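Predict the structure of Thioredoxin reductase.
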Amino acid sequence: MGETGERYDIAIIGTGPAGLEAAINAKIRNKNIILFGSKELSAKLVKAPKVNNFLGFYNLTGKELKNHFAAHIEAMGIGIVNERINNVYAMGDYFALMVNDKIYEAKSIILATGIEYGKPLKGEEKLLGKGVGYCATCDAPLYKGKTVVVVGYNKESEEETNFVSELCGKTYYVPMYRGEYKLNPNVEIINHKPLEIVGVDRVTKIVLEHGEIITDGIFMLRDSLSPSQLVPGLEIEEGHIKVDRNMQTNIEGCYAAGDCTGKPYQYMKSAGEGLIAALSAVSYLDSAKK
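Done. Here is the predicted structure for Thioredoxin reductase.
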């Protein structure tokens, strides 16, 4: 069973306007929900200098709107689980959500992941599971005494890299952001942009803007995965999750909302879709009961 041994009614992945609106509506309808995402809510929202098209909130900065969102979910007692989901598997009557060393279970899911994920490197998808991974703490034991490259897109990747470096023979860190890096002394930092992952049956090297690194394994630690990597079997159309008017995907019990379902990339549209996705998930659960 899940970490707490319970199976949630609805698991929501993402804390932008779509995920938060879905959480609010599922909670109003007394569903047992779990919301995964960042305590900072939406990184994209904070960057908006002015928001003028969100009904009822005229002339606010993105940061001010974010604070209203935060106050709303706090008032409703909705907490955020700050854990990265690595994979979601449809198990028939429930979904298994894999987080590093734990599994959560939910009867239905709402994907509200936005479009913040980076494009895969050349060769990345071809070598996934053949030396390329997205969870360093899960797979580190496979590389005991071997060479590993971690391409990190955020501060959290540093912790995973330190964990890996204690098991691996040699660890390289390729940061995709600027800042101070809190890394073990045995981690070598390489400040060159990665271009391609090379290998036939297994990873052999990563090619950088300047030079290359011969390696046994590569971990790509992005802020979020593309939906097709996150949920195997999910139907994608032109780079977005394919949904119907009820926000239902091709997988029963799985809904999607917000930027990940397509344009226009607007907060109002995302919130509206989050509402619909929650209502659809609720009616799916109610009909399953009957």
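The first helix runs from residue 17 to 28.
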